[in-house]
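Give me the 3D structure for T-complex protein 11-like protein 2 isoform X4.
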Amino acid sequence: MPGNDEQPTSMSTTVSEDASSDAESSSDRCNSITSASDFDCSRQSFTSDCSSSKHSSPSSSPPKTITLDDVMSSARDLSNLTLAHEIIVNRDFHVEQPHLSQNSLEKQVKDIVHKAFWDSLESELNDDPPEYEHAIKLLEEIREILLSFLSPGANRLRTQILEVLDMDLIRQQADKEAVDIQGLASYIVTIMSKLCAPVRDDEVKKLRESPDYVVSMFKEIFRVLDLMKMDMVNFTIQSLRPDLQRQSVEYERAKFQSVVEKTPSALDHTTEWIKSSLEEVLFSMPTVEQPNGHGKAGKALPSPFLVFNSGFIRLLTWDYHKSPLPETLMTDEVRLRELQRRLQLLKAVASVLLIVYSAIGGPISGLPALAERLKRMTSVLLEGIHSPDFNLSEALGNVSGQICCELNKSLTERNYPALPPELQVTLKGQITSITQENNPIRSLLEGRVQQYFRVLLATPNSHVNLPPMPGGLALIQPELTSLAVTFVSLVNFNKQVYSPFYMMILKTLLFSNEAPPPAATAPQDPSIQNPVNSK
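Predicted structure for T-complex protein 11-like protein 2 isoform X4 (535 residues):
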């Protein structure tokens, strides 16, 4: 473990991360899912390799009986995959000590066991003559913890710790009642001050100022050592993150392949997800005459990236109560849920602002400060919109009232007449009506948001030259752009890892029963065939 000046400070945990995306600015390529460049794809695109790596092509095996060992092994692989993925994509990921509820059974048992141990230690040290058995065990444990903190090159400090905390010598001193427990504790605190992270300096300083009561000092030493162990783990995570990121695609793909081989049903939900997306794309595609000379009409072969991107777009409105996520997206469920919640709030805010600016028009146009106040006010009042018990109608009523007050204030300050009562009533009615599922404003913005996300998914390098924002979304452009870039980054990384599995499933769905109709060739999405690392 690095010394005091090398330790990282504590980090705060968040569920979302800022990442760059791999989409580009041209929106023309994704204006319609029925364009020729979207649905035409050569048969070669389904048979070409997705990667040159040995793990790029997932293997399939015949059905077999699943044993308990297979289940446990798959659980370990999935746990390792989840942990590695979290370290890679969540820059703020860190380990914290568990905080037990004060009234929990676990906390009560832990307190009882610890109290019994420390009472036993106190009783032994107060005996005449003192008994040092437990104290020596504690010193030995502390020595091992301190040694575990040392970097491989810290030989001098390692030798010093082994000499001072020489268990054989301490046992001999204990037999002669010559052990200086207080002196050893002070030495331990000194070593801790050299090894701890800067964030623990105050904690170690308190150890120096603690009373000379040995049992209390040992209690505090172990408490601070537990904190230092967490710092060590988090420092290790930080150190490993660059290496994990370089090998992340191959590692995650290999781990998931291991799970698939041991669990035949490991891709069931993913298959249903791709099947639904394929059906959606095929339904939207026009019927074309087959170029086989027979003059028969049929569906062209859809491009893989169009099918997969349509599936990813569906995640924006995914109903987690009705359908579980595809297995390939389980490691990102927390991020996807958070993204969906934020997007739901943004769409509601955009709907309200579009209604307001359409109804009032010129008198409030060109006032960015007013627009920002209205947006912030609406966002605060609609916070928690994703909650099942959130009363959206009531909240929108409050929003309309506050907006009318803010508008009247702004209008009168600039010598405009206040809003007529009938206009305020109309405005309130239009705002509260967005709770209706088929509300035209709601449907319009929902379609434009999906169009914007679809453009970002379909084109490279959009983080450099972002595509134009669709009409009606300009007031939430900064927030929506940030959200879209995060989503695209997440999707692109998922494609890198799991595109071989997706291609295998899609080929099975298209070609398992009958030969597909010939289709004109079209360029395949580079993010599927040769995905670019978005990290």
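The longest strand covers residues 287-289. Let me know if you want a second pass.
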